[in-house]
Design the sequence.
């Protein structure tokens, strides 16, 4: 079973519809997703080969209860142990995994939980990714904030108490160029202690420029590490080029960024293989760049505007919890972020086990923080959301809920040096 | 029995307590327990954690009369450590600084060579410099020459609770270095703290061992007792059971009759 992704908007022209259908139905009309486009930097790296050789040979059906028990008994979790912990054989051991994960989290992070919020500054997109609300064929209200509007949004967010911000855009170099994002970073440095980016992949020199503008953390979701599946989901645009995306974090670190975030979007393909790939992507890069701070996210597919049927298929909360515990046991030192895609009850539970960072006061729309934070109707234009969030708690509520669980909410643990 | 003359002296400042609270994990209750139950007079503060606005600033938690020891965690080289130390001084954290320079986010092991460079720059600038280091005698000597006020070797990786994994090398530092040797990182149990003190360590720094304890105040009190016991044992000059190397009960030179 798979999601029904294709939705035709009545607003599309005859020609646009024809092109869309051709992309959807005729694979030969699509560009080779493994081939770089002009202007895309190719770095010399062995990380992809290391990760994918493990992932391609991963047969999770061969792992048994015995393998899971020995993985849980080992003091240091090996790659083989990780494979066992991600296998179906580990599902009956979820409580034991959670206990071990909690112990490891405590050793490295104590009882702290970091809070941050995303800020979408533009939702124009030049890609056709069939599951995403921002995709270029989806009929939504498009918007790009100007610097004045960005500063206003930042003030509203900063006044709520948040100190770490993640700046996001749709993937459009044309509408939201690197300089535009750089200017937004410079503004963000005035209002926040920590500035992260989740934007389209760029070249090393561009990451260096964005770092100089004040950003120090780059998150890129690979969506799926299954290249054949990736090809059927990202039909058009720069994002279609899978290997350029894979090397984004490495280019960001080469460009001087302090840290990098990774993830597959669970539910797009075989989640066990995607989880293994995400973890190994971090693992091998950490060995190559031991000074870098690494973090993993674990988003699942969510409904989008004009397609409320999209769902994460077989990745239920139990499986998500298994993946997160396996990540923690394998890499006790990495940050694990759980976004507002997940429910309040899930997030309350998982921060006690393994998650170290949660978003709060979230909007995935454009220019709507004031109306969302104050409850006032906005008289200015707003852009539509990328996906529907699940946990809509405000910063203040999230803060008090975390403290009530006996955990320590942390707003900043970072210096730009 | 407490020996009031037995003081820990760092950069000309005297301290009665030989327990220093580390900075890895923090909460109001941890700091309270460290001060009230463990008797800490020095509390480490991660400058990057203090770099916050009104909410839950760790600086607000530090009681009067406690000496702040800002650390440079987050620094990846000497240059960054120097900048963080100066920022700490500007924030009003005093002139103590614990140098932490890590190029490794997995084990958080210190970079000894960069640490020597930062120590020299900051000591010249008037800081009381306490460098966190991997226990290497040559490096410790360089740190002395660079102007450090103490040397802080790690017992085992931060947060690991593995105890005195580097015991033999810490003993060498204690034997050869004239500055206080403060054992930092990896101390998971009061018994390990006690052992390090018996060896002649000048003080113990710990955090995770307390932060993750079931009963914080009780564990803090346990550390205090253990550190005091170890110190007393060291001052008492261990007899043949405790000392390194066994001594025969019959004199080996008994055959000499004249």
Sequence:
């Amino acid at each position: 079973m798979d999601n029904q992704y294709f939705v035709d908007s009545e607003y599309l022209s005859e020609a646009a519809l024809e092109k869309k259908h051709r992309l959807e139905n005729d694979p030969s009309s699509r560009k080779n997703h493994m081939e770089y486009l002009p202007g895309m930097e190719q770095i010399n790296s062995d990380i992809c080969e290391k990760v994918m050789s493990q992932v391609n040979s991963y047969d999770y059906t061969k792992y048994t209860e015995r393998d899971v028990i020995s993985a849980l008994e080992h003091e240091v979790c090996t790659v083989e142990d990780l494979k066992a912990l991600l296998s179906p054989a580990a599902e009956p051991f979820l409580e034991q995994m959670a206990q071990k994960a909690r112990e490891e989290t405590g050793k490295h992070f104590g009882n702290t939980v970091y809070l941050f919020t995303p800020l979408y500054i533009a939702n124009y997109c030049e890609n056709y990714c069939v599951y995403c609300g921002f995709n270029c064929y989806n009929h939504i209200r498009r918007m790009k904030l100007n610097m004045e509007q960005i500063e206003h949004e930042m003030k509203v967010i900063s006044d709520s108490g948040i100190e770490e911000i993640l700046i996001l855009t749709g993937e459009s170099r044309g509408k939201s160029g690197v300089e535009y994002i750089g200017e937004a970073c410079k503004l963000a440095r005035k209002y926040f202690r920590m500035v992260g980016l989740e934007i389209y992949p760029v070249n090393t020199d561009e990451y260096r420029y964005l770092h100089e503008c004040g950003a120090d953390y780059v998150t890129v979701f690979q969506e799926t590490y299954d290249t054949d599946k990736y090809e059927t989901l990202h039909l058009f645009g720069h994002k279609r080029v899978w290997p350029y995306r894979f090397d984004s974090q490495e280019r960001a670190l080469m460009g001087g960024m302090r840290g990098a975030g990774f993830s597959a979007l669970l539910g797009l393909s075989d989640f066990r293989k995607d989880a293994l790939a995400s973890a190994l992507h971090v693992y091998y890069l950490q060995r190559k760049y031991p000074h870098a701070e690494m973090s993993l996210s674990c988003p699942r597919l969510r409904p989008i505007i004009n397609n409320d049927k999209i769902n994460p298929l077989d990745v239920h909360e139990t499986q998500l919890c298994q993946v997160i515990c396996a990540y923690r046991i394998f890499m006790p030192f990495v940050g694990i972020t759980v976004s507002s895609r997940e429910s309040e009850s899930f997030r309350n539970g998982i921060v006690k086990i393994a998650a170290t960072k949660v978003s709060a006061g979230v909007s995935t729309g454009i220019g709507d923080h004031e109306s969302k934070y104050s409850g006032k109707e906005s008289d200015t234009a707003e852009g539509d959301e990328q996906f529907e969030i699940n946990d809509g708690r405000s910063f203040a509520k999230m803060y008090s809920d975390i403290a009530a669980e006996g955990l320590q909410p942390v707003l900043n643990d970072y210096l730009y040096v | 029995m407490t020996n009031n003359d037995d003081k820990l002296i760092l950069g000309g400042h005297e301290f009665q307590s030989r327990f220093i609270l580390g900075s890895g994990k923090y909460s109001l209750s941890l700091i309270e327990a460290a001060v009230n139950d463990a008797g800490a007079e020095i509390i480490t503060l991660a400058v990057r954690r203090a770099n916050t606005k009104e909410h839950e600033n760790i600086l607000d938690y530090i009681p009067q009369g406690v000496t702040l020891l800002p650390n440079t965690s987050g620094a990846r080289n000497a240059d960054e450590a120097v900048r963080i130390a100066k920022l700490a001084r500007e924030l009003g954290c005093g002139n103590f600084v614990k140098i932490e320079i890590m190029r490794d986010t997995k084990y958080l092991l210190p970079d000894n060579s960069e640490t020597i460079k930062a120590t020299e720059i900051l000591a010249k600038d008037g800081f009381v410099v306490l460098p966190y280091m991997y226990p290497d005698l040559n490096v410790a000597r360089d740190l002395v020459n660079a102007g450090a006020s103490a040397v802080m070797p790690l017992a085992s990786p931060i947060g690991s609770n593995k105890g005195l994994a580097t015991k033999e090398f810490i003993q060498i530092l204690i034997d050869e270095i004239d500055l206080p040797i403060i054992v930092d990182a990896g101390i998971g149990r009061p018994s390990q703290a006690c052992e390090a003190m018996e060896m002649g360590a000048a003080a113990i720094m710990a955090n995770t061992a307390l932060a993750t304890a079931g009963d914080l105040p009780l564990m803090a009190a346990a550390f205090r007792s253990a550190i005091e016991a170890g110190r007393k044992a060291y001052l008492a000059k261990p007899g043949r059971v405790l000392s390194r190397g066994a001594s025969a009960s019959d004199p080996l030179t008994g055959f000499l009759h004249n």
